[in-house]
Amino acid sequence: MIIWVTGANGFIGRHLVRVLADRGNRVHGIGHGAIGEAERHRIGLEHWLNGEIDAANLNALAERAGLPSTIFHLAGGSSVGLSIAQPFEDFSRTVTSTARLLEWLRGAARDCRVIVASSAAVYGAGHAGAIAVDAATLPMSPYGQHKLIMEQLCRSYAVTFGLQSTVARLFSIYGPNLRKQLPWDICSRLQAGDRRLVLGGTGAEVRDWTDVRDVARLLTAIDGKPQSEAFQVINAGSGLGTTVARVAARIAECWGGTISVQFSGIVRAGDPTSLLSDDAMPRTLPFDWKIQVEQGLADYVSWFKDQIR
Question: What SUPFAM superfamilies does the record tag this protein with (predicted)?
Fold first, then answer.
């Protein structure tokens, strides 16, 4: 099968490309960043187009790679903080790129299925316990708002033009090659010699932590199941919650030595206290989460230390 991945050079994209290629698919990518020939072959990309997602570049990729049967749309904003600092840039990355992709598909590849990476940030605050996919969406940040607009665009093109799309709402993804967010920040401070960590928030915040290697498998499993309706949304989370305090403590344990972890009590704008998926949809694929948080964080610390040797 011919598969395209937008944002294939990103954190999730590189893991997903490798899984897809290992399963015999011809994988092609478009997005930002240069990828050398050797690196492109290593991660499993046949073609890489470094550029904006627009009609001209999509046509160019189609000429080189052929029309896709599935597009995994991973391109878009990836940070709550950056969306607050630069909201229009986040809008362009998430909403504008999606609108251009859908409009190109409407004219050039209506039979192509789109699997779209959205975020649990669309749910916002006020959800206690596991969140069902039909729960209220009340985003707290431009990042979450823009992901929700992206979803609505997909729904519109499905209802009006019959373009098949599946939205996967991702939760707290970590794992090898992640170079931002909490695990990276903690490891970077420990590497710098800081042994008395003071982190933002209360530590009681609950997140559904999922290893990127499992997430890549889940996205592939979604593509493997026929879609019964033109538009569908799934929660791409495990249903298992872990507090930020426990994540920080586990990273400290795996790092080794005497490390104290405290919390400032200052909650960052746009951060809900709990984002925990129900696990109803992944169980119907079927799909099983193989990497538990304790092991995944240990693997992450090992990966980080390997990078600095």
Answer: NAD(P)-binding Rossmann-fold domains
Mean predicted confidence (pLDDT) in 145-151:
98
Rounded-to-integer distance, Cα 33 and Cα 43, Å: 14
Question: Of 57-66, 221-230, 243-252, which range is least confident?
Answer: 221-230
- The domain spans of the chain are 2-173+210-236, 174-208+240-307
Asked whether 75 and 97 are in contact (CB, 8 A), the reply is: yes
Distance CA 252, CA 226 (A): 43
Q: How many CB atoms lie within 10 A of CB 33?
A: 10
pLDDT at position 182: 95
pTM, to two decimals: 0.95
Name, in order, each residue with C-beta under 8 angstroms of 42's C-beta and a sequence gap of 6 or more.
none
Among residues 172, 123, 129, which one has the least CA distance to residue 151?
123
- Report the alpha-carbon angle 69-153-101, nearest 5: 45
The answer to whether the CB of 101 falls within 8 A of the CB of 73 is: yes
List the beta bridge partners of residue 130: 276
Closest alpha carbon to 98 in 64, 48, 34, 52: 52
> Residue 267's pLDDT is what?
85
Distance CA 285, CA 70 (A): 17
Indicate the fold that domain 2-173+210-236 takes in CATH. Rossmann fold (3.40.50)
Residue 269 has pLDDT above 80, yes or no: no
Neighbours of 85 (CB within 10 A): 11
Q: What is the mean pLDDT of residues 195-205?
A: 95
Residues 6+ apart with CB under 8 A from 183: 174, 247, 251, 297, 300, 304
Fold of 174-208+240-307: UDP-galactose 4-epimerase; domain 1 (3.90.25)
Closest C-alpha to 4, from 56, 90, 64: 64
